[in-house]
Each structure stands twice: as C-alpha cells, then as structure tokens.
Design goal:
By secondary structure, the chain is mainly α. Helices cover about 95% and strands about 0% of the residues. It has a single domain, classed as Helix Hairpins (Orthogonal Bundle). The protein is built from 2 helices and no strands.
Length: about 150
C-alpha cells in the first residue's frame, strides 16, 4: 500500500484538478443560464408579436404589412429555434463538465479514504512496535529483579 503522504499528495492533485473543473462548471452553468434567459426573452417577443398581429388584424391591416409581419415572425421563430439549439448545446456541455467534476471528486475522496487508512495502519504498526518494546523492557526489568541485579 502506498504511504499516507503519497496518497495525500495524490489527493491534493485531484483536489486542484477538481477546483479547476469546478470553475469551468460554474462558467458553463452561467453561460447556460444566460442562454436560457435569452431564449425566454425571444419567446416573450414571439408571443408579444403574435398578440400584436391579432390586434392589427382587428384594425384592418394592409397585405404588405401582413407580409412584413409574417417575414419578421419567421425570423423571430428561427431565432427561437436557434436559441433552443444553443440552450441544448450548453446544457450538454455543462452536464459533461459536471460528470467529469463528479468523477474527479470521487477520486479525491478515494485518495482521502486511502490516505486515512494508511495513516491508521502506520499508527497501529507504531503502537504495536511501541507495545512490543515496552513488553521487552518490562520483561528484562522483571528478569533483572528476579535474578537480583
């Protein structure tokens, strides 16, 4: 089994890697949040312009204005679809980074557990060695007392 200090070093390296990934994950989540907000805004525009069309149709709209509004709505609809794709792409990216970060955290925790076990094994071995030394010393002292030295 590797020594405790080696495992602690590996834990530290995994921790540093995890910290970098956590920063990347936070940035990916912020970008996802911004993309979702932009999508929401585009969908609100789409809904608003559809309501405006209804109002304009009630007030008698020219054919050219209707065509213009229709072209504009196609552009808005295309923008919504593109933004939906962007949101999906950013979500997939954030999810991928999160999985990598979680795996690194599992490794970090694994190194921590192994380091703790190695430290405990070393402490136990030292304790046994000390007990053996004390027993030998006590045995010699008893022998010396019984022999009369």
């Amino acid at each position: 089994m590797p020594e405790s200090r080696q495992l602690t070093f590996l834990e530290k390296l995994a921790g540093e890697k995890s910290d970098v990934q956590a920063v990347q994950l936070a940035a990916a989540r912020r970008a996802l949040s911004a993309a979702v907000e932009q999508l929401d805004q585009l969908q609100r525009y789409e809904t608003s312009y559809n309501h405006q069309l209804g109002d304009k149709l009630e007030q008698a709209m020219t054919i050219d204005a209707l065509r213009g509004h229709h072209r504009f709505m196609q552009n808005v609809t295309n923008a919504v679809r593109q933004q939906e794709l962007e949101v999906a792409r950013r979500k997939a990216y954030a999810d991928a980074i999160e999985r990598v970060w979680q795996e690194t955290e599992r490794r970090r925790q694994g190194f921590r557990v192994l380091a703790d076990k190695a430290t405990e094994a070393t402490r136990l071995a030292d304790s046994r060695r000390q007990q053996k030394t004390n027993d030998e010393f006590a045995g010699r002292k008893l022998l010396q007392t019984n022999i009369g030295f």
